């Protein structure tokens, strides 16, 4: 049994020796000995060929950008957390004159951005890379203003999925997989009033809906 890196409860083997399942929050995670070191992880991200001008890429992130454009004004302050090398979220929102900053521990590591609070934070295909999800969600919550929103996109595992054939697990940098149950735990643990899940788009907020 291993300790879950999110809720710190115990876990049981889930898939071969590659993934364990938490008995409390339902998270599915790789054991520490399977995690890439920082250099190999960065090399993996540097190999990504994503281009913020690509219309397909922009369409992929549209659940987040459409929500921000609908729910926030141009002078609200936003952060793209884990933005990668070239973020379509930042591209789209800045094109619409929105104030959004980009933070990434490998490509835009400006720690000053982690010393202020934001009206909204976007994390697109980021949270599955968290080696220490408890620490990262504590950080994200601390960066949000009182009535702010956290927008997430990630592959969500359901029991109807054949995990052995699920492509999402094959990326070695995907180290923590979430269920809907996991997000329910996060909502309660970190004190969010509202949560919604639509396909691979998750929204937490303390705003009055």
TrEMBL record:
Pfam families for the chain: Methyltransf_23
Coiled-coil stretches noted in the UniProt entry, renumbered to this chain: none
Keywords: Methyltransferase, Transferase
Any one GO molecular function term: methyltransferase activity
InterPro entries tied to this protein: SAM-dependent_MTases_sf
Protein name (database record): Methyltransferase
GO BP, one annotated term: methylation
């Amino acid at each position: 049994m291993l300790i879950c890196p999110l809720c710190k409860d115990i876990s049981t083997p889930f898939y071969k020796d590659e993934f364990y399942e938490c008995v409390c929050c339902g998270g599915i995670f790789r054991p520490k000995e399977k995690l890439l070191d920082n250099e190999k992880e960065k090399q993996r991200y540097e190999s990504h060929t994503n281009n913020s001008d690509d219309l397909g890429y922009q369409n992929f992130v549209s659940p987040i950008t459409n929500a921000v454009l609908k729910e926030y004004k141009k002078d609200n302050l936003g952060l793209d957390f884990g933005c990668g090398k070239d973020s379509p979220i930042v591209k789209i929102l800045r094109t619409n004159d929105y104030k959004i900053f980009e933070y990434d521990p490998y490509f835009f590591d400006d720690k000053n951005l982690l010393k202020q609070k934001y009206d909204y934070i976007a994390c697109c295909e980021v949270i599955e890379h968290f080696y220490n999800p408890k620490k990262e969600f504590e950080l994200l919550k601390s960066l949000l203003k009182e009535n702010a929103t956290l927008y997430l996109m990630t592959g969500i595992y359901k029991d109807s999925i054949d995990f052995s054939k699920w492509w999402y697990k094959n990326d070695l940098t995907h180290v923590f997989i979430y269920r809907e149950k996991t997000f329910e735990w996060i909502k309660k643990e970190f004190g969010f009033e509202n949560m919604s899940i639509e396909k691979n788009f998750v929204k937490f907020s303390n705003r009055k809906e």
